[in-house]
């Protein structure tokens, strides 16, 4: 078990040596947050369901967790890409145990995972580059949004507290909405 992120020729700043986990780091706000935390010196663990060759949004280029980690490393930062579906308790538990084993702690968790607009089965998807109108979305979409948003934040935060933040006696959880 290592108590601090390894140092190399990398960025340093106010979060130097801190271990940060950003969920939903494949694109949008999650990707931007991961890039900024790395620029501030943190070792960033980037998670998402979208991995190279298995994107949940294949029509969008360079939007996988691997692309985010590559961008951080290209800028001189430290990052790891880890696949995780944050709505699956077994996957989140395994992730937290892996972090505990590798790092021994987690200093910052940014809950940003969101898959609420992923197409559901035969739901209308509109034309490429557009979203369906709200009245065209099936009622199950709201259930999916709650599962992919609020529930995944709750689950990830709870398991982070159980395995990492609580036993370490410190840390921070940030939830995006």
UniProtKB/TrEMBL annotation:
Pfam families cross-referenced by the UniProt entry: adh_short
TM spans (from-to): none
Protein name: Short-chain dehydrogenase
Signal peptide stretch: none
């Amino acid at each position: 078990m290592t108590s601090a992120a390894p140092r190399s020729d990398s960025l340093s700043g106010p979060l130097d040596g801190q271990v940060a986990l950003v969920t939903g780091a494949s694109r949008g706000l999650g990707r931007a947050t991961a890039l900024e935390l790395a620029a501030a010196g943190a070792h960033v663990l980037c998670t998402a369901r979208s991995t190279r060759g298995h994107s949940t949004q294949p029509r969008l280029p360079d939007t996988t967790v691997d692309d985010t980690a590559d961008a951080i490393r290209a800028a001189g930062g430290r990052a790891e890409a880890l696949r995780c579906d944050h709505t699956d308790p077994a996957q989140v538990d395994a992730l937290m145990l892996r972090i505990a084993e590798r790092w021994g702690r987690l200093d910052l968790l940014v809950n940003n995972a969101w898959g609420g607009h992923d197409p559901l089965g035969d739901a209308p998807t509109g034309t490429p580059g557009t979203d369906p109108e709200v009245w065209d979305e099936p009622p199950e979409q709201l259930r999916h949004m709650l599962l992919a948003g609020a529930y995944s934040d709750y689950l990830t935060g709870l398991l982070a507290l159980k395995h990492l933040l609580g036993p370490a006696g410190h840390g921070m959880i940030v939830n995006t909405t």
